[in-house]
Design goal:
243 residues, mainly alpha, elongated
């Protein structure tokens, strides 16, 4: 639609008689198709020029290995989903497998970056079966753009997973251990203290009877907590009996 509006604006600016809307739409569609074919041809030739065996290696990613449920391309497209050491090792292997194709050596300086990003996004959203049914040179161009885009994405995924593992498995336990050591070094700290002091404090409040005179000095109405104050006979603050 943007290209159609740009074409209409150009015709009006140059005082050209406007054709019908359908004629303009067909002309824009043909121009877009020519540009796409030129893009696919340029990328495919650049890949073949860098390494004659690289196009066949890229197309082989569409094959499904024996015993697997999806293709190698689909496996490489999946980011790590677990924060474990095994997942970190697999993330590093994924980076090495993608970098082994060496698509950074392919000279794509003549191709606009936005066109490559759009082509890679289209390939990432397409299923491997749909890409396999695509004719050449579009198929090679799609896979090359996807793998080229996955190089940076795989590195980012590995770094994010590494940062998460450092925070959850190393930094947080070390911070908790340091806090425990600091508390243990305080005078009288850590000796005879319960694991959950707030629960013990609650039990002490429950066992403290409160007369009407000293009840406001306590925290809350302890007579409503578990009913344990009913068996007490005198106030712990002044020694008087319950009213």
């Amino acid at each position: 639609m943007a290209l159609f509006n740009h074409a209409v604006a150009w015709l009006r600016r140059n005082r050209v008689l406007l054709p019908g809307a359908s004629v303009s739409a067909r002309a824009v569609a043909e121009a877009r198709a020519v540009a796409d074919r030129r893009l696919h041809t340029t990328v495919s030739r650049a890949v073949r020029r860098a390494d004659p065996s690289l196009p066949a290696a890229l197309v082989a990613l569409l094959d499904v290995p024996d015993g697997a449920r999806f293709s190698e391309l689909e496996r490489l497209r999946r980011p790590p989903t677990r924060s474990t050491g095994t997942a970190m090792a697999r993330a590093m292997e994924r980076v090495e497998e993608i970098a082994a194709f060496g698509l950074r050596r392919v000279d794509l300086s003549r191709v606009p970056v936005t066109r490559l990003v759009t082509l890679a996004r289209y390939g990432l959203l397409s299923k491997a079966q749909a890409i396999e049914r695509t004719s050449e040179p579009k198929r090679t161009a799609l896979i090359a753009a996807v793998i080229r885009g996955l190089e940076a994405a795989a590195i980012d995924d590995a770094l994010d997973l590494f940062a998460l593992l450092m925070a959850t498995r190393l930094i947080s336990p070390a911070r908790r251990a340091t806090e425990r050591d600091r508390l243990a070094m305080l005078p009288g700290a850590g000796k005879g203290l319960p694991d959950q002091p707030h629960r013990t404090f609650l039990k002490i409040l429950i066992k403290l009877p409160a007369c009407l005179r000293h009840r406001p000095s306590l925290i809350g109405d302890v007579s409503t907590l578990r009913g344990e104050t009913q068996s007490l006979r005198e106030c712990a603050l002044c020694g008087c009996g319950f009213p």
